[in-house]
User: Fold this.
Amino acid sequence: MSIWHTREQDPKGKGTNVVFHIPVPVGNNDSGIPWNQCIRENMAPVPIPNVNSVEEAGITNGDILEVPEFVGYDSTSSTDAEKIAKIQAKYVERSAELIAALAFKLENWGDSA
Assistant:
């Protein structure tokens, strides 16, 4: 499975539209509900077109989050290596932000008290 897909390049070379594949943590929230179940039942994830069957299964099962993102470059003359490094850095940043936000939002989801 890839961690990101390129959707399209900005025609002026200022950035790239990508879709990140962020793994959902294994384990349960504070109510004992598996994180992937929390995702499935709260977000109803639907894969973008043209993903392979393994990625599609992970997304629909709530094991992977697909996150569209525009990644801007420092310069229109950035090298391919610089562009890839920028995308990878944004992936790490967005992964941490998203998992923290979901953990906060869904930490007690399913609690029947």
Summary: The chain has one domain: 4-106. The first helix runs from residue 35 to 43.
